[in-house]
Design goal:
By secondary structure, the chain is an alpha/beta fold. The protein has 2 domains: about 1-120 and about 280-300, NAD(P)-binding Rossmann-like Domain (Rossmann fold, 3-Layer(aba) Sandwich); about 120-275 and about 310-324, Dihydrodipicolinate Reductase, domain 2, CATH 3.30.360. It contains 9 helices and 14 strands. The chain has helices at about 10-20, 35-45, 55-60, 75-80, 95-110, 125-130, 155-170, 280-290, 300-324; strands at about 1-5, 25-30, 65, 85-90, 115, 140-145, 175-185, 195-200, 205-210, 220-225, 230-235, 240-245, 255-260, 260-270. It has a 9-stranded mixed beta sheet with strand order 7-8-9-6-10-11-12-14-13. β7 (about 175-185) and β8 (about 195-200) form a beta hairpin. The longest helix is centred in the C-terminal third of the chain and has 24 residues, at about 300-324. The protein is globular and about 70 Å long. The protein starts with a strand and ends with a helix. About 40% of the residues are buried.
Length: about 325
C-alpha cells in the first residue's frame, strides 16, 4: 500500500483526492494547503487530515501529489525528490525551463518515479486510436474554452495548448524544425488566444489554435496521413477513422469512390470508446509504474519537452508582439 500526500486542494486537487480514494493500492495520509476555505471543504467532504507543516506530510508518505499553482511546482517537487519521494505533478512540469531541467536531473539522481499530469494521454477517445499506425503529415488542433479565472497565472500556451503539444510530441517521432506563432492578451496579462504552426524534421506540420475566451468549448484534433484521416474529439470522447479499405475491414461502413487513379474503396469507422475516468487512469498508471518498477507513461522528460516547446512558442509570440 502506497501512502499519498496531496499538495494543493483547489478545484483540481479535490478531483485528485476523490480518485485517490478509489485506488486500492494507495492510501491518502493527508493534504497540505494554506487556503483555509479549501481545507475546510476537503475535511468536511472527505474526512482527510490536514497537515499544516508540508515537511511532516512529505515525511509520512511515499507519493507526493502536486496540484499547486504552476509557480509552486518547482519548490514542492525539489523538496519531495530530495526526500526520495515519488512525485506526481500536474502540468506544466515547472514554471521555467531551468526549473524543468533541475527537476529532470534531480529525478535521475533520486532514482524515483515522476509522472506529469498530461491527462489527455488517458482520454478514452485518444486511447481508442493511439495503437493504430499513426504517422501524420498534417495535424490540425482546436482547443477552445470559456473564460475561467482559474489557471490564468500562466498563458493559454501553458494552460491549454500544452495538452496538445504533449500529444503531438508523443505521436510525431521527430525533432521540431521550426515554430511560427502569434498570440494576443485579451483579458489577462499573458496570451489568451494563440495560433501556432510547428514544422518537424520529418515533414509533418501541426497547426494549433487555443483560446480561453471562447463562447463555446472545443477540444478536437485532426490527423492526416497517407491513406488515412484520424479525428479525435477529446471533449465529446469520440473518434473517427477514414481510410482506404483493407481486407480486415469487413465490419466497417465503406463506399466506392472514383479517383483519377481508378476506383478506391473508402472505409469509415468509429472506434469503440471504453468509458474511463482519465484522472483515475493516470493516477492508477503512476501507482502501477512504482509497484511494477516500469517507466511512467508521461515521464519528466516528456513533461520537459512539452514545456520546452511551449516556451519556444511564447518566445516567438513575445518577439512578434515587440516588432508590432
Amino acid at each position: 500500500m502506497l501512502k499519498v500526500g496531496v499538495f494543493g486542494v483547489g478545484h483540481l486537487g479535490k478531483f485528485h483526492i476523490a480518485n485517490w480514494k478509489e485506488i486500492e493500492q494507495a492510501q491518502i495520509v493527508g493534504f497540505y494547503d494554506p487556503n483555509n476555505e479549501h481545507a475546510a471543504e476537503v475535511i468536511s467532504q472527505y474526512q482527510i487530515k490536514r497537515f499544516t507543516d508540508p515537511e511532516k506530510l512529505m515525511d509520512a508518505v511515499d507519493i507526493v501529489d502536486i496540484v499547486t499553482p504552476t509557480d509552486q511546482h518547482y519548490s514542492v517537487c525539489m523538496q519531495a525528490l530530495r526526500k526520495g519521494k515519488h512525485v506526481f505533478v500536474e502540468k506544466p512540469l515547472a514554471h521555467t525551463i531551468q526549473e524543468g531541467r533541475d527537476i529532470v536531473n534531480t529525478v535521475r539522481e533520486a532514482n524515483v518515479k515522476l509522472q506529469v499530469g498530461h491527462v489527455e494521454r488517458f482520454n478514452p477517445a485518444f486511447l481508442a486510436v493511439k495503437e493504430m499506425a499513426i504517422q501524420p503529415m498534417f495535424i490540425e488542433v482546436h482547443r477552445l474554452a470559456q473564460f475561467n479565472p482559474r489557471g490564468t497565472e500562466v498563458s493559454v500556451i501553458l494552460d491549454l495548448m500544452i495538452h496538445d503539444i504533449d500529444i503531438i510530441l508523443s505521436i510525431v517521432k521527430s525533432d521540431v524544425k521550426n515554430i511560427s506563432a502569434s498570440g494576443v492578451a485579451v483579458i489577462t496579462d499573458t496570451p489568451d488566444i494563440a495560433n501556432v504552426r510547428i514544422e518537424f524534421n520529418n515533414g509533418c506540420v501541426a497547426n494549433l489554435t487555443s483560446s480561453r475566451i471562447s463562447m463555446k468549448k472545443m477540444r478536437k484534433m485532426r490527423m492526416f496521413q497517407k491513406d488515412a484521416y484520424i479525428g479525435v474529439d477529446f471533449l465529446q470522447k469520440k473518434a473517427e477513422v477514414i481510410k482506404l479499405k483493407q481486407p480486415s475491414d469487413e465490419k466497417v461502413f465503406s463506399f466506392d469512390l472514383e479517383t483519377p487513379n481508378g476506383k478506391k474503396t473508402i472505409a469509415i469507422a468509429n472506434p469503440e470508446i471504453a468509458g474511463n475516468n482519465a484522472i483515475k487512469a493516470e493516477l492508477t498508471a503512476f501507482v502501477d509504474s512504482i509497484l511494477q518498477h516500469k517507466p511512467t507513461i508521461v515521464s519528466e522528460i516528456d513533461g520537459f519537452l512539452a514545456m520546452e516547446v511551449a516556451h519556444q512558442i511564447l518566445d516567438k509570440i513575445n518577439h512578434t508582439n515587440i516588432l508590432v
